Amino acid sequence: MKITLLGPPGCGKGTQAELLAKKLGVLVISTGVIIRNLMESGGFSKEQEENMNKGGFLPDEQVIKIVEDEISKKEHSRGFVLDGFPRSLFQAESFEDFEILDCAIYYSVSDSEVVKRISGRRQCHCGSTYHVLFNPPKKEGFCDDCNEKLYQREDDGESVVKNRLLAYQEKTQPLIEFYKSKGILLEIDGEQKIEKVFEDTIEALKL
Questions:
Q1: Is there a domain that residue 41 lies in?
Q2: Quick one: CA dihedral 153, 113, 27, 32, positive or negative?
């Protein structure tokens, strides 16, 4: 199957993508992961990096090219789960010239819940991740595994999250109607526990 997951930042798309891909026996294509890897390897201009760190997005044409290059790889010949793409109506319409999706799954989560989820994230340079409310470290502000001080990613700050939500509502929300008109949209309540969200996803897909 060829599936895309939609929803605001922090709605749990990444977690559900991994669970769904494992169930289907395919791989996740996460534009966020690909773009972060490109940033770390110097694949973008300083101006583009600053824009993304403030919650902005890359130009549509650039994102489409990144995704199409990834999908062309042999390991995705059996299908894939897209996480974070398309983000705009233009991306969705342009992508249809390259690939037709079987299903779009929309995880609905309120703005207040999104801000709470993302602004509470904390990370450690060793790779461990925490949340001040849902998964706090044993010692506040420090990693359980290496005892190093935790940090908040620049794009997880509350003001940046609100900017990301505005960009989402402006550019990504129309995708819901687009895929609904195609008859391939499934809507799932994303404010439930992870296990229940996945259970509802599987049931909706009739897997």
A1: yes
A2: negative
Residue 83 in domain? yes
Q: Which residues are annotated as catalytic?
A: 13, 87, 121, 153, 164
Range of the domain at 11: 2-109+172-205
Residue 119 near residue 161, CB atoms below 8 Å:
yes
CA gyration radius for the chain?
17
Number of domains in the chain: 1
Q: Whole-model pTM?
A: 0.79
- Maximal CA-CA distance, the chain: 51
Using an 8 Å Cβ cutoff, are 82 and 1 in contact?
no
167, part of any domain: no
Place of tokens 């996945």: 198
Taking only the tens place, the pLDDT of each residue in 147-189 is 999 999 887 888 888 888 888 888 778 899 999 999 999 999 9
